[in-house]
Amino acid sequence: MIKTEIMAKHPNWVVAGYADLDTTVNCANCGRALKYGDGYTSRQHFTDNGAFGLCECGTCYFAQLKKELATG
Ligand SMILES: [Zn+2]
Q1: Is the dihedral of CA 27, 11, 14, 44 positive or negative?
Q2: DSSP collapsed to 3 states, 35-69
Q3: Distance between CA 20 and CA 42 in Å, rounded?
Q4: Measured in angstroms, how far is the CA atom of residue 72 from the centroid of ligand 1?
Q5: What separation in Å is there between the alpha carbon of 30 and the centre of ligand 1?
């Protein structure tokens, strides 16, 4: 999904493709709050122009990675 679609579904989430490392954001996938610097670059959710992956928590990032590796 892109940021606009995620924000439409979850207006109270803060999702970001880039931010200061100390900024608290929500995981673009599950909504868990985390510091931008502690997140991973999403492989499934992107900024509206597709240039950057949105910040995602480790649990979601590695779950997606595992899925991609399993399906090739
Ligand atoms: Zn997550």
Answers
A1: positive
A2: EHHHCEEEEEEECCCCCCEEEECHHHHHHHHHHHH
A3: 17
A4: 22
A5: 4
Span from the CA of 40 to the centroid of ligand 1 (angstroms): 10
CA–centroid distance, 57 to ligand 1, in Å, is: 4
Residue keyed to tokens 């670059």: 41
The per-residue pLDDT string of the chain (72 residues; one tens digit each, 9 = 90 and over) reads 999 999 999 999 999 999 999 999 999 999 999 999 999 999 999 999 999 999 999 999 999 999 999 987
Domain boundary assignment for the chain: 3-71
